[in-house]
C-alpha cells in the first residue's frame, strides 16, 4: 500500500475527471473527514485517513482490501474504473443518463444503452464522455461512455447506441470472483 | 350636347313643375300627372331627335346621380309635420329660363370635375364661401355666412355660386329625366316629388328642430366630454364665442349622429370649427369629431370603385350610398390629416427649440395629447375602416417618444389593446411590421413599453403550429374521401364545379374570419416577432431591455421551431452566466436577478413545450437558479407587484423576482416529476433558507410552494424530521450545486423561526405547512388553521397580491376563515401566466371582511 506516484495520479484523475469533472475536489476536501487514495496490488482505494493508518499494521500480503476500490491499473499502465466506485461517481456525476424501466435489465446484462431506452439525458452532454446511468427512480445502475452528444441523440433512430457500456451493477453477480 | 333641344325640354319641364308648385301638396294632381308622362314616352321613342336627347339625359342623369339620391332620402313625415315657413330665409328671385340653362352647362363641367376628385379622395376641397344665406340660430338670431352652418349636402356646396332656388329647380329637372329613363320607378319618384314641394323650407326646419333636440343622449355625452376638457378663458367675448361654438359643435354632432345619411355633409362644418385659433375649441372639436366618427363609421371598409364600376349603371340606392361613403371618406381623411398635422407640428416646432411661455407650451402639449388620444381611440375602435395603416403608422411612430411621456404611453396602450382585440390577425401583422421597423431604426434602443406590447399578441393560445399527426390524419381523410367519391357523369361534375365556385364566392362575402388566413397572418407575425427577439438577444448590448425580451420569448416559447432550440439555449446560457458574473464581480450595480431568472424560465419553457421528443435535464439552468436564489434574500423589492401596461389585468404584468423563482419551481418540480430527490430537497432547503430574509408576501408565497412540494414528494418529510438523520456527511449550504450539497444531512429548522414570525398569518401558515410536511401529503390533520388554507384559490399569486402592501396592521393581517369553501377543483399548480380568479376572490374576501 502506497500513495500514487505523479504519473499514476495523472492517469487516474484523468479517468475520473471524465465522469465527475472538477468534483474530484469534493472527494478529497471533505468537511467531515480527510480521505485519500492508496494503491494496493495495482488497485486504487479511496479510504479515510484513520482507516488507512490502521491498515498500515497489516502486512502487504495479508491485506486484501481497504476502503472503496475505485479501479485498477492495467498492465499497459491505463486505468480501469470498477463498478465499486459507482457510489461516489453517482454522487458527483457531471453527466447523467436515465434509462427507462424496460432498458434497465438489458443494461445490467452488460449491453449498451439504446436510444429507445433513453429516458432522460443531461443537456449538453458531449460525445465520448463518461456518464452515469440511472434508473428512472434515480438509482445508479452503472456507467459508460456516451456514443452521441445530446443534440445528436435527438435525431438518432431507436436502435442506435447512446451509451457504451463500461460497468453495471450486474457485475456484482456476474463477476463475483474477479471483482474483489 | 344639343343645347337647344335640351333647353326646350327643360323649359317644358320647368313649366310642368311650376304647375305642380302652384298646386302645393295636392296629391291627387300629381297622380293625375303620372299617366301623362307615361303616354309621352312612347312618342319620344318614335322621334329620332328625341331618342338622342334621351341618351344625353341618361348621361346627364348619371353624372348628377347624387342629387336625386339625396332627394329620395328625404324624410316625408318630417315634411308633413312642419308646414310653417321659417322667417330667416329670404325668397330668391325667380330666374329666367335662359340663364338657367347656361348655368346648367357650367354646372355640368364643374360636377364632372368634382366627381373624379371625390373618388380619387383628393382632399383639396373648394372652400370659397360666397353668397351664403344667413341662418337662424337657436336664439333666433341671424348669423352671417362665416359662421353659418353647413346645412346642405357636400355636392350642393359645389353649386353655391348659384342661387338656392335654381338648384332646386335643376334637381327637379333631373328628377324628371330620371322619370323618363326609369319607368318602373315612376311611383317612387312621384313620392319624392311630393316632398319636393316643401323642399325649400325643409332643411331649415330640420335645423331648427335639431336646435330643440338639445337633450338627446349623444348630445349629453359629448357635452360632458366637452365640459371636462374645458379650459378657462379670461376674455369675456372669447368666452361667449366659445360657448356659441361649443353649442354648435354639440348640435352638429348630434344631428349627424341622429341621421348620418342626410347630415353627412355637416362633417365639414365640424372640421371648419376645428380650424379655430382657440385651443380649447380646437380640442373640443377634435373630440367631437372623434365621437361622431366612432359612431357613424360603418362596419365595413369602403372600397375604391374601379373604373368599370364607376361607369356601370347602378340603382338609385347604390348611387346614394356611394355618395355618402365618398363624403364620409373625404371628411374622415381630412380629419385624420388635421390630427396628424397637429402632432407633426408639435414635434417639428419642438425641434426648433424656441423658448415659449409655459402657458403656451402647456396648451400645445394638451392639444397634442388630445390629437394622440383621438388617433389611438380611432385605431382601437374602428381598425377595420379605411386609413388604418395611416393611423397605425402615426401611432407606432410615436411609441418611442420620450417627452412627453404620456404620448408614448397612450400609443403603446392602444397598440396593446389592438393586439388583444384583433380577431383576424391582420392588424397585428401590420402593427408588428411597423414596430419592428421602428425598433430597428432606433438601433434596438427603445422604451421598454414598446416591447411590452408584444406580450399582448394573441398568439399564445390561438396559434397552433400544424402538427404532423394532424397532417397525417388529413391525408388519411383525403384518401378515404377519394375512395368514397361516387362516380359522376361529366355533366354532374360540371355542376359540382360550378357549385363549388359559388360556394367560394359566398364564403368571401361572409363576414366570418377565415381560420386559415388568420393562421397565416399570425405565423407571419410570429416570425417577425422572433426575428426581432433573436436579434435583440444576439446584440445583447442592451441589458435594460433583456427582461422584457426574455419574458416575451418565454411566453411564446412553445411556438419556437425546435431547430433553434440548441442555439437559443446557448444564447440564454451565455446571458445568464454573464449576468451572474457581473453580479459576482460587483459590476454595473445589478441588484435584480430578473434577467437571469427570465433566462432560466425561458429555457424551462422551451424545454417544457418541446421536451416530448427528448427528455433533457437542464443542469446548468438548475444550478444557476439554485445559486441565484440566495440573491433574493438580499433584495427588499423581491415581491413587489408591478403594474402592467393595461392596468386591469394581472396576467400580463411583469413578474417580480420571487414570482419568477416560483414559476421556475413549478417547471422543475410540479409540472414534471423530478427524478433526483437530492435535488428536490436541496431546492426546498434553499427556498426555506431565503424565506427568513424576505418580505411578508414573498414568505407566504414561498411557503405555499414548499407546501406543494411536500404534498407532491412525500419523501421530503425526512427534512422535517429533526432527530433521525437519513443521509451521511454534512450539509453544505454554501455550495452552489444542488446535487452535491447533501441536503438530507440537515433539516428545515427555518420553520421553527417562522412560527415565531412577527406576522400573524405567517405564523399560522408556517405551522400549517410544517404540519403537512411532517405528515407527508395529508391535509387532514394539518393543525388548527387547516380549514382556512384549504381553498384552492389560495396560491402564491394570491399571497403576493394580498400581502403586497407593506403596511402592517395587526388587526387586519389575519386571514379570516372562509365561510363557504367553494367546490374543490383539481388543482395542479398555477400555469405560467395563469392567474385567473384571484381578483374576484379578493373582492369577495374584501366583502366578507367588511361584513
TrEMBL record, chain A:
GO terms for biological process: assembly of large subunit precursor of preribosome; maturation of LSU-rRNA from tricistronic rRNA transcript (SSU-rRNA, 5.8S rRNA, LSU-rRNA). The keyword Nucleus applies. This is 60S ribosome subunit biogenesis protein NIP7. Keywords: Nucleus, Ribosome biogenesis, RNA-binding. GO terms for cellular component: cytoplasm; nucleolus; preribosome, large subunit precursor. Required for proper 27S pre-rRNA processing and 60S ribosome subunit assembly. SUPFAM superfamilies: Pre-PUA domain, PUA domain-like. One of its GO terms (molecular function) is RNA binding. Interacts with pre-ribosome complex. InterPro entries: NIP7_N, Nip7_N_euk, PUA, PUA-like_sf, PUA_sf, Ribosomal_synth_fac_NIP7, UPF0113_PUA. Coiled coil: none annotated. The keyword tRNA processing does not apply. It is found in: Nucleus, Nucleolus. It comes from Anaeromyces robustus. Belongs to the NIP7 family. Residues 95-170 form the PUA domain. Gene3D superfamilies: 3.10.450.220, PUA domain.
UniProtKB/TrEMBL annotation, chain B:
Residues 17-32, 477-490 have a biased composition (Basic residues). Residues 598-766 form the CCAAT-binding factor domain. Keywords: Coiled coil, Nucleus. Residues 99-110, 224-233 have a biased composition (Acidic residues). GO terms for molecular function: chromatin binding. It is found in: Nucleus, Nucleolus. The keyword Coiled coil applies. The keyword Coiled coil applies. Residues 1-51, 75-110, 157-236, 468-490 are annotated as: Disordered. Residues 33-46, 84-98, 175-184 have a biased composition (Basic and acidic residues). This is NOC3p-domain-containing protein. The lineage of its organism: Eukaryota, Fungi, Fungi incertae sedis, Chytridiomycota, Chytridiomycota incertae sedis.
